[in-house]
Fold these 2 entries.
Entry 1:
Amino acid sequence: MALVMASDPTSEPAIRIENLTKRYAPPPGATGAEAEGKLALGGVSFDVPEGSIFGLLGPNGAGKSTLINILAGLVNKTSGTAEIWGFDIDQQRRNASRAIGIVPQEIVFDPFFTPFEVLENQGGFYGVPKALRRSEELLEAVRLADKRDAYARTLSGGMKRRLLVAKAMVHSPPILVLDEPTAGVDVELRRQLWELVSELNRDGVTVVLTTHYLEEAEELCDRIAIINHGALIANKPTQELIEMARDKVVRIELEADMAELPKEEAFHRCELLSPRTLEVTYDRDAMSAGQVLAMVQAHGHTIVDVTTREADLEDVFVQLTGTGA
Ligand code: ADP
Ligand code: MG
């Protein structure tokens, strides 16, 4: 299945984002801090390497959709630049749009079109000549060939998502962007979407997906950027990000309630899960669990039980953002 325009083998990034800023207009009549408008992106820069599955990870409200919608031409940036496949989104909007297919976060369809018609209409929108349209092939690729002539409104949520992926690929863009493709979908459908995305990527499509699921980013993406409150706080190959999780976590059950956390430079994090349950995160290269316990005891606490575990991507995320996912 050849879904993509031929790409040249130079190492130009598929997407280049530099110092991208977005401040939304304030609501009418806003006063105080609100009158400034919401700063959704505060100067974000990163490249998406060609051929990668790139994960843009961040909690709700981080600015992911704002960034995607700027690339899609749906939101006007305040400042900064973005290039898609080498085309500036301001100077060369048409070419930039032709190089990217976007699956939006919200599913919107005219309920009275069939999947085949949805794709044909989209092909027409992009000016793809009838002879060159690949609606059948795309329906096949997203496993909707048997729904070719069903009304879109009769499709399940999962089928609609897959149809949106096909719709985004109608003009054979080398880059596919999916904004939270698996938010609120069941495990089975998530699997299907992951498979579809991997397949497209194997065929040469550069994929960008936003998600607030760490597990998804970890499983699917070869590179992960993390944004929080409109700022980029990490951008690394997935493997490296996971290796940052060199920390270990020790959970300590105490004999008596702990009134004050033991302050130790060597502890990366120290947290009471209950008055008698202390969790300490530490660098396993720098110290041992035994040393952690000794330090806690030196603060005058009696330990009754201990469990340890390795840190995972979730812990890295918490470490970087200071929040839960
Ligand atoms: P994410 O997709 O990561 O959840 P968004 O990009 O949707 O984040 O939102 C980033 C911030 O910008 C949030 O605080 C959100 O409330 C705000 N925001 C998003 N869209 C608008 C808008 N049209 N007008 C004003 N504020 C907005
Ligand atoms: Mg969003």
Entry 2:
Amino acid sequence: MKLVTFTHGNRTRIGRLDGDGVVDLEAADASLPTEMTALLSAGATALDKARNAKGAELALADVHLESPILRPPKILAVGLNYADHVAEAGLETPKHPVIFNKQSLSAHPPFDPFHMPRASSALDYEGELGIVIGKRCRHVPRDRATEVIAGYTVVNDVSVRDWQLRVPTFTMGKSFDTHCPLGPGIVTADEIGDPHGLELKTWVNGELRQSSNTKNLIFDCFTLIEHLTTAFTLEPGDVIPTGTPGGVGIAMKPPQLLKVGDVVRIAIEGVGEIENAVIDEPESTRLI
Ligand code: ZN
């Protein structure tokens, strides 16, 4: 099942993607939650209802897809998790997962443009498989990690390289508003099976920049969940972008950072595709 968050008629709610249609889950079954983290929190019975809901279908072309989780409780990303990316960064393979936060507010729709910041032009892409957590959990052993995964999504871990690298922590450079496009929905874990054999590709303006497979993850999805939950509780709707393979713009010779007007497309086998253009940060971001 592919779950989406969409806006239609000025109201945002959740749906099930069926080919070119979206089943409006609120209209199809009034007993279901209308927001994604609530649906995931409601567990297997609610997900079965969503899977079986009928009618109330809208054309995909008539809705606006939002970030599948509008405001994830946490976005916990992983750095340096593919050997070819570690090599292109000129770094050593990490002994422990390199974890950093992207702010919840950086979550951004799968097909909307993201911002070239007013403060920098060192803008870059990172195609990544995102894990979506489905169950509140702590101290999850690796061999039980599948019990807490709701599904998977495609993430662009957009990065502002000068802000990322000029100080010891990634927090600001990885967290500008709009810099976590994700989607197009959440593909439930039962559809994916083992998430460690999925082709992952990124194109910029149609030119292939990244081509790898999630089998190349240094710390795999289940190990990451064991590691993260050693320290803190994960909750439904938390997103874990698992790291990017080689081929980011800053590592090209010469570097090929993003420009206004560029279009970044990321596809992951079985999970879907997102596509986002780059626009200048608009005047409307001044909120004071
Ligand atoms: Zn990344």
